[in-house]
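DM from R.C. (forwarded with permission)

"hey, sorry to bug you on a friday — could you get me a structure for this? deadline for the figure draft is monday and I only need the backbone to look sensible"
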Amino acid sequence: MDARRTKQIIYGALYGLFWICIFAGVYFWSSRPVPTCYDGVQNQGEQGVDCGGPCAIACIPPNLKAISPTGGVLVFASGAGHVSLLAQVSNTNTGFASPSFDYRFDLDDASGTLVASVLGRSFIYGGEVKYLAAPNVSVNGPVDHATLSIWNVKWVDTPTMGIVPQFAVQNDGPVPSPTGTVLVAGSIKNNDLASFSSILVIGVLKSVGGLVVGTSQTTLDHIAPGASEDFTVMYPAVPGLDPSLTQFYAYALRT
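My reply, with the result:
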């Protein structure tokens, strides 16, 4: 093979390699995925993986405190083979709220054997203290104590979820009820600028001396800004119960 033919082959190979590099570069850049807030990669100026910076989701600090009970779970006998449960939980993180978390009441007998479990789902605003209740739970044996577990907590920053709804709830006193039960009436006014659906109202019933002796709850479908709604809760007529001391608490999630 003469020198001229050799040069043609070399130049042709270099020319082909040049265009291969050009096409490969164009393909690489055109097929490269565009950074998003859902790609599982810390990019585009994010403060963490898919959070902070250009992403609407706030980065959760590692020292975030867990949602925790403020005391033990109260257990009340509410009839043959039934108990009611009441617990108070606190979110001490003023800058972060949870629009969803799962919880479970575990009921044990005196030997520590599980008698029943009650599952639930709730939410909590930044810095809020609230009640969780499980009225009239059916059990197959005596209950000595109960515990509360919380898991699967979804966190957002407080501005994303908003502030605690501005409700005014009052006790309007007992009303006639079937024998063996107590029916307590109440009313709620929405002093907020937003409408709310599925408003949970928990009643904490007390004795003459102010001791908590039971809990009941009801749900209101909807309440508009400035509107008022009436409701009632029912509970067995346990000894010493003073319906006039019942305290009501209302909870709703902003949507």
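R.C.: lifesaver. The longest strand covers residues 96-108.
me: no worries. The helical segments are 3-31, 158-161.
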